Structure formats: structure tokens, C-alpha cells
């Protein structure tokens, strides 16, 4: 099995098309065996410790293991099968145990401390000094200085958390896939765009049914909530979507309580007041108090806009006979109000955003602004026929990396959009360059028959967003891999992604790709003008929604988690609902919070860090002002951004990188001006 296991295959290409559930257990165990063997060799190396044979060797070891484990976890996100899930869950505790034991390894920690005391270490400067300090901090934060009994408990917690978080995400995936709703009377779909109705019809036919079949994939949910005139149908879909995993086979409520308790215990073992202080120590916010102060200040500043938007929704709902406004009415009323005030319909924009043109326009934008060339290359080693593969080169011809795209929903694929790194490259000592490898995924509206995939403008923004993450990874020129690319503070990592969204609002940039899929005509000026005028539409409502998530996240992991004291799932859900009321236009709206399907917090990496989306948005809104002032295609500005931020990874403090590009500290007013406008009277 070892010789033929695709997880163990060496070479430039990852054989995704060959990886099956049967390969996971033996493959992962062999990777971990080799990793443990290399770890022992490093920890017991008789040679005096140097930067290269200690920190360099550790970097090589961790990268070798991580890059070989990643393909299996990636396939769980995009092509899950029962066999793959079962096999991965079998070895997941062993994976978690490996990473926990690495940072708790007494021999390795002794070698690192011995190197820290050498003359070579004291003379280190720049990136090498930063890497040493960061590595020592990471080990201490992982419990390297704990006594044996507390290290053992820490290992138990880490293994338990990895299992619980994996199960949380599986429950959301399964609950989403399990729900279907058959519509037998087409009149119930009045108002829903014809393209969506055709997709629902095709889904029913594929399932062997007559009529129309609705699911909880977002391309199915969105057109119902935004356009269906049938209020009861909207309610059915809305309630199913927002209350996933609250009961039954996929109940996530007990998992939330267990995860919070374990995270709090972990932080306490390591000497922190709570999980937020532990998480935020090495991020820009630094601690819970500053992060909560940031969300509180933005909430105060956004509240007048939110109150204005909520009043407009209630008033417009009344004109539509939807008084009082209900949670399942919000998207419908908001979209109707936007069409009324701006004569703008998301669906009306779709014909100008065919996916292939959007992609080619984005590649051209990357060439003009950053000097990058993106070219498609045929490969066989993909996990689904929808997947495409591209190479990305610098203006000097150097192959910076390659990436896959996977844009359409499937039952075996998780929801949302994301970027993942498969391999980290960078400059070699011999002057060459090892290319990076990554992937960007989404759940966009798929093509229909001979008609191409036509995106909403929000989907265009999402595509640009994920490409920004990909650029952060593939343009990294940091010679120490663990300090490059996406290995940065999480409240900094969203800047390169969110800043890319700005180009989707610029006329010059849209002219590269916003062309009608049938006629090739550019987006009409009057349609563009309406789109721009509507940009701030419901800005207060949208910002308050983000602030509600960030606030509850910090309180959930902070004061609430420190005071759970046997709190059960029902009591916790009630407490969360009560907190969301401060961000709701009426108390019962808070009932439909998404805690039990909030994968960002409980199976992703945003626990005690959801505020970082808005933190990064403050940074990118201000940073893009330089492009607005100097030209959105200004090559010199693009080069400066690349050299100051995009290619620099974690080679310096984020604050210093920001100042090197903009020449000053960030001003939050840029975000408020762009998204909200003048303060309501």
C-alpha cells in the first residue's frame, strides 16, 4: 500500500483524482511515523544547535508533514464520501496528537532554548530574529513550559477539540444536505427568477420527482428569500436554514458547550484569563479588551445608520402588506426597496457577469496592477470535472505558483467560499524559487444548459476576495516558509482579500470583464451608476450584522465561557438569543441566530476572532484610498503594495507593513465614509 498510496506520492502534482478513503488511514499514519522519526532525530541531534540545524530543520519538518496531510482534509471539504469521512475521523486524533506533542516535546524545547542562548542567536537581526522570537512564543503558548501533568491534560484537550470541531462541521454539512422541500404548485414560486426555477425543476427531475425541489445550498436559498412572493415559503426556507443543527441527529448545541468549556480550560492551563486573551496575544488586537473596545466603538458609530435602515425596512414592508416585518421578510423587502429606490435588481446584473469573462478580466487586472500573468494549464489530477488549474508568473517570468479553482455547489462540498494553501514555496538559497500551490473555492450559481455561469455582483466580489487570499499566498517571497504567505495575524490576513473587492466597483476595472454574455456589450453607464449609488444601501444593517457576530463571539468565548458553570445547551442558546436582541429590530428576530451552524467559530479558525473581518476592512478601505488617488491601474502603486504588504507575509509587524505602504496609521473614517456615508439626521 505504501508504494502505491497517492498520499505518499512525491512529485510536483498532487494526485487528488486517485485519493480514496482506503488510502487515508495507512497514508496518514505513515506520514506521522516519518514525522515522529524526524522529530526525534532533530531533538537528539548531537551537533551544537545552530539556526539552520534547529529552526531551519524544524521549519522543514513541519512543512513536510503539513503539506502531505492537507490533501486529505481538503477532499473532505470538496468531495466528501462516507469512506473518506470515516477514515479521516479515525486518524484525526492522531493528527492532533502529533502537532500537540511536537510543541510539548521536551527534547525539542531544550534544543530550542539552547540555541536561544547561543552567541549566534543573540546576533540575529531582521527576519531571522523575528522568526526565533515568534517560534519561542509559539512553543510557550502551546505549553512547552508546563509541568508534565498539565502538558498531558493540554494534549487531551487539543485532541478532544479537534474531534468536536470536526463533528460540528460534519453536522452542518449533513443537515444542509439532508433538507429538501418539494414544491408542486409553480405559483408558489412567483417572483423567483426563471433561471432559479429551472434549476429547481432540474433538481427535482434528478431526484426522480415532479415539480420543483428546494435545498439549503445558498444558490437555492437566496432566490427564495429575495424574490419569492409566497411569504410562507420564505418562512419555511428561512427557518430551515437558520435553525440547522438545533435538534435531532445533527444537534450541535451540546458540542458548542463542550467546545467552549475546553477552550476556556485550555486558556487557563496556559495562564490566560480567557480564550480571547490567548487567541489575540499574537494578533493586531493583542487582547480581549481591545477587540471588544473596537467592536463597541464601531457599534456605537454604526447604530444610527442601522436604526435608519431598520425603519426604512419596516416602512417599506408596510407598503407591501407585510406589517409587521418578520425575519423571513428582510431579504425580500430589502431587495424590493432597492429595486424601488435605485431600479436595480441583482438578477438584472447577472447577464453582464459571466464567470469566464470575470475570471479573464481578473487575470488582466492582476497583470496591469501587479505585473502577474495567469494562464490556464490542463491537468488530470483533479477531484471533480468542474475544477480548473492555473499557473501564475511574475513579470520577470518566474513561476510563483499554481492554483485550482472550484466554483459550484455539490452535496459533498461544504458551503461558503474559501482559499486554502497546499504548498508553500519561496526563494531558495541558490537563488531559485520554489512555486507555491493553492486553491480557491466557492458555491456560485452554476451554468445551465448551454448558458454560462452568470454571477451576481456579490459573487463577483467573492471571487475577487478569494483571489486576494491566493495572491497573498502565491506572491510570498519570504525565505522562511513559516513566516511567509498566509502565516500572519488573523486580523491582518483579510486585508489582501478584502482590498481586491474594491476593483469590482470601479468603472475602468469593470470594463475588463463586465460584458453581456450574449452580445459582448459593456455594462451600460446608467446601470453602473445605479449600482454605485446603491453601494451604501442597507450599509448600516449589514455592518451591524457583522458587529453582532463579532460581539457575541467575543462575549461567548470571554465572560460567558468563564462563567458557564455547568450551563446546559438550552440555557446557553437563550443567553445568545438575548444578546442578539441588541442587534435586532424586534426581539423575536434574535431567535434565528446561526450559532449551531456557525462554522467560522466552531469548526473554522475564527473563534474569538470574528471581529477581524471588520478590523481588516478598516485597513483595506484606507489602503485602497491610495489606489483611488494614484490610479486603480497604477503600476507603481501596485508594485509598492506588492513589496510592502502582499509579498511580505509575517516578515514584520502588520502595523509597520501598513505604514510602509500608506505612510501613516489607519483611519477608520475611510470605512465609514465608503460603507455608510453621512451620519443620518
Please characterize this protein's 3D structure.
It is a single chain. This protein has helices at about 20-45, 50-80, 80-105, 105-115, 120-125, 125-140, 150-180, 195-205, 220-225, 230-240, 255-270, 275-280, 290-320, 330-340, 345-350, 355-370, 455-475, 495-500, 505-510, 525-535, 540-560, 570-580, 600, 610-630, 635-645, 655-660, 670-675; strands at about 180-185, 210-215, 375, 390-395, 400-405, 420-425, 425, 435, 435-440. The protein has a five-stranded mixed sheet. A two-stranded antiparallel sheet has the order 1-2. The protein folds into four domains: about 5-145, Glutathione S-transferase Yfyf (Class Pi), Chain A, domain 2 (Up-down Bundle); about 180-245, no CATH class; about 250-345 and about 540-610, Neurolysin, domain 3 (Orthogonal Bundle); about 350-525, Neurolysin, domain 3. Helix 17 runs antiparallel to helix 18. With about 675 residues, it is mainly alpha-helical. The protein is globular, with a radius of gyration of 25 Å. The chain is built from 27 helices and nine strands.
Indicate the topology.
Layout: H1 21-43, H2 51-78, H3 82-104, H4 106-116, H5 119-123, H6 126-141, H7 148-178, E1 181-183, H8 194-206, E2 212-214, H9 218-227, H10 231-242, H11 253-269, H12 275-280, H13 288-319, H14 330-342, H15 346-349, H16 355-370, E3 373-376, E4 388-393, E5 399-406, E6 418-423, E7 426-427, E8 433-434, E9 436-441, H17 457-474, H18 495-501, H19 507-510, H20 525-533, H21 539-560, H22 569-580, H23 599-602, H24 612-630, H25 635-646, H26 654-662, H27 669-675
Protein name: oligopeptidase A
Cofactor: Zn(2+)
Domain Peptidase M3A/M3B catalytic: 225-674
Amino acid at each position: 500500500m505504501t508504494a502505491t498510496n497517492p498520499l505518499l506520492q512525491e512529485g510536483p502534482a498532487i494526485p487528488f483524482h486517485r485519493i480514496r478513503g482506503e488510502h487515508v488511514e495507512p497514508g496518514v499514519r505513515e506520514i506521522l511515523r516519518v514525522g515522529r522519526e524526524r522529530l526525534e532525530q532533530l531533538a537528539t541531534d548531537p551537533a551544537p544547535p545552530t539556526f539552520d540545524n534547529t529552526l531551519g530543520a524544524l521549519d522543514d519538518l513541519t512543512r513536510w508533514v503539513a503539506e502531505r496531510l492537507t490533501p486529505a482534509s481538503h477532499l473532505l471539504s470538496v468531495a466528501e464520501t462516507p469512506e473518506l469521512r470515516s477514515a479521516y475521523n479515525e486518524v484525526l486524533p492522531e493528527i492532533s496528537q502529533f502537532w500537540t506533542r511536537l510543541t510539548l516535546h521536551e527534547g525539542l524545547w531544550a534544543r530550542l532554548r539552547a540555541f536561544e542562548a547561543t552567541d549566534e542567536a543573540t546576533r540575529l537581526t531582521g527576519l531571522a530574529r523575528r522568526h526565533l522570537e515568534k517560534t519561542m512564543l509559539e512553543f510557550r503558548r502551546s505549553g512547552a513550559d508546563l509541568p508534565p501533568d498539565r502538558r498531558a491534560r493540554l494534549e487531551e484537550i487539543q485532541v478532544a477539540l479537534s474531534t468536536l470541531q470536526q463533528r460540528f462541521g460534519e453536522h452542518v454539512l449533513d443537515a444542509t444536505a439532508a433538507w429538501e422541500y418539494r414544491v408542486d404548485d409553480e405559483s408558489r414560486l412567483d417572483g423567483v427568477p426563471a433561471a432559479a426555477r429551472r434549476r429547481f425543476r432540474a433538481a427535482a427531475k434528478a431526484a426522480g420527482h415532479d415539480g420543483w425541489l428546494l435545498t439549503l445550498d445558498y444558490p437555492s436559498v437566496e432566490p427564495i428569500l429575495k424574490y419569492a412572493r409566497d411569504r410562507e415559503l420564505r418562512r419555511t426556507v428561512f427557518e430551515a436554514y437558520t435553525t440547522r443543527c438545533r435538534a435531532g441527529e445533527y444537534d450541535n448545541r451540546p458540542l458548542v458547550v463542550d467546545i467552549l468549556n475546553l477552550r476556556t480550560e485550555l486558556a487557563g492551563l496556559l495562564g490566560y484569563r480567557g480564550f480571547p486573551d490567548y487567541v489575540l496575544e499574537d494578533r493586531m488586537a493583542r487582547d480581549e479588551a481591545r477587540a471588544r473596545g473596537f467592536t463597541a466603538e464601531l457599534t456605537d458609530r454604526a447604530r444610527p445608520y442601522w436604526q435608519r435602515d431598520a425603519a426604512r425596512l419596516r416602512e417599506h414592508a408596510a407598503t407591501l402588506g407585510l406589517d409587521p416585518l418578520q425575519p423571513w421578510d428582510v431579504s425580500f423587502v430589502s431587495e424590493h426597496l432597492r429595486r424601488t429606490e435605485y431600479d436595480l435588481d441583482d438578477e438584472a446584473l447577472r447577464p453582464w457577469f459571466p464567470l469566464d469573462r470575470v475570471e479573464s478580466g481578473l487575470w488582466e487586472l492582476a497583470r496591469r496592477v501587479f505585473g502577474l500573468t495567469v494562464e490556464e494549464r490542463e491537468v488530470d489530477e483533479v477531484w471533480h470535472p468542474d475544477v480548473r488549474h492555473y499557473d501564475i508568473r511574475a513579470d520577470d517570468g518566474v513561476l510563483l505558483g499554481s492554483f485550482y479553482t472550484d466554483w459550484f455547489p455539490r452535496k459533498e462540498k461544504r458551503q461558503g467560499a474559501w482559499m486554502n494553501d497546499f504548498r508553500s514555496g519561496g526563494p531558495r538559497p541558490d537563488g531559485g524559487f520554489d512555486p507555491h500551490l493553492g486553491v480557491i473555492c466557492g458555491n456560485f450559481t452554476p451554468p445551465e444548459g448551454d448558458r454560462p455561469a452568470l454571477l451576481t455582483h456579490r459573487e463577483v466580489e467573492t471571487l475577487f476576495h478569494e483571489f486576494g487570499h491566493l495572491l497573498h499566498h502565491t506572491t510570498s517571497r519570504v525565505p522562511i516558509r513559516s513566516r511567509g504567505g498566509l502565516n500572519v495575524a488573523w486580523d491582518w490576513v483579510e486585508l489582501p482579500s478584502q482590498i481586491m473587492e474594491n476593483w469590482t466597483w470601479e468603472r475602468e476595472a469593470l470594463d475588463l470583464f463586465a460584458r453581456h454574455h450574449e452580445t459582448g456589450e459593456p455594462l451600460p453607464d446608467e446601470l453602473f451608476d445605479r449600482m454605485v449609488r446603491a453601494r451604501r444601501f442597507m450599509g448600516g444593517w449589514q455592518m451591524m450584522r457583522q458587529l453582532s457576530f463579532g460581539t457575541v463571539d467575543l462575549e461567548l468565548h470571554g465572560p460567558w465561557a468563564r462563567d458557564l458553570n455547568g450551563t446546559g445547551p438550552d440555557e446557553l442558546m437563550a443567553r445568545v438569543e438575548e444578546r442578539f436582541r441588541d442587534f435586532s429590530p424586534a426581539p423575536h428576530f434574535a431567535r434565528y441566530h446561526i450559532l449551531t451552524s456557525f462554522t467560522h467559530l466552531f469548526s473554522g479558525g475564527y473563534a474569538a476572532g470574528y471581529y477581524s473581518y471588520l478590523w481588516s476592512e478598516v485597513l483595506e478601505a484606507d489602503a485602497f484610498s491610495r489606489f483611488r488617488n494614484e490610479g486603480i491601474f497604477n503600476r507603481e502603486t501596485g508594485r509598492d503594495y506588492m513589496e510592502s504588504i502582499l509579498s511580505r507575509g509575517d516578515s514584520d509587524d502588520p502595523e509597520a507593513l501598513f505604514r510602509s505602504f500608506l505612510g501613516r496609521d489607519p483611519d477608520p473614517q475611510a470605512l465609514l465614509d465608503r460603507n455608510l456615508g453621512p451620519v443620518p439626521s
